[in-house]
Amino acid sequence: MAEGGSSEMPPPEQPQDPGSSGSGGERDDDFGYGLFPERSRGGGKKQQSMLYKAVFTKNHRCQVMLQIALESSPYAKLLLDAMKNTGCTVFKDRHFSCEECDGCVSGGFDSSTSQIVLCQNNIHHQSHMNRVVAHELIHAFDHCRAHVDWFNNIRHLACSEIRAANLSGDCSLLNEMTRFKFGLKQHQQTCVKDRAVRSILAVRNISKEVAEKAVDEVFESCFNDHEPFDRVPHSRSDAKYAHRDFQNRDRYYANI
């Protein structure tokens, strides 16, 4: 886990079985699906009864926080506009799923179904939901605009994880202070590398050394790829300005 001209996100391609020859030496890898017990690789979310969903209060809370994020977060609003412009319109009911997850994972992007999974048992605050939605939407944007080989090419995964950590607000100074990590020289680069490696290790059965090597190999180009923001949005205000500029850029090109 984390085609042309359609008004929705593109239909998923069936991933090739990496067998024992995947990048980075993965063998018998479940690609992170073990962290999301409500779904299987390529099969999406397992069906549950309507009564189960109705009484599951964590699911309702997750759905409410998701709606607020989509309507109010400038990170999410920019990414949704960018995906629509790229031909991959996102629909809340189709492309987001609130589910129970194992471990301390907060969310994931299931490329086999083009769905973003939100871990309803691990997301407890609106600010956390906003960051998770932005992080996973960056993966979805990369899936839409590029031929990302999520299952077989560890460098592709590393690049998207670098971009997601860099552009979603994960590594803002405020968030780093809450982790008691502040005053570091080049704290943004250090944080992005650390979180990208941790994200890779959560979904790949590889050593930390292999994950760090993949991140280092693509770091410079992927860290400096700010699409669709055109800058690193270090705060909500930065993201608002980036969204405004994106809308103005779109109007400019529409009038040429």
TrEMBL record:
Biological process (GO), any one: mitochondrial proton-transporting ATP synthase complex assembly
EC supergroup of this enzyme: hydrolase
Keywords per UniProt: Hydrolase, Metal-binding, Metalloprotease, Protease
Keyword Hydrolase (UniProt): yes
Pfam family membership, one: Peptidase_M76
Any one of the GO CC terms: mitochondrion
Documented EC number(s): 3.4.24.-
Chain positions covered by the region annotation Disordered: 1-47
Annotated GO MF terms: metal ion binding; metalloendopeptidase activity
InterPro entries: Peptidase_M76_ATP23
Protein family membership: Belongs to the peptidase M76 family.
Full protein name: Mitochondrial inner membrane protease ATP23
Organism of derivation: Podarcis lilfordi (Lilford's wall lizard)
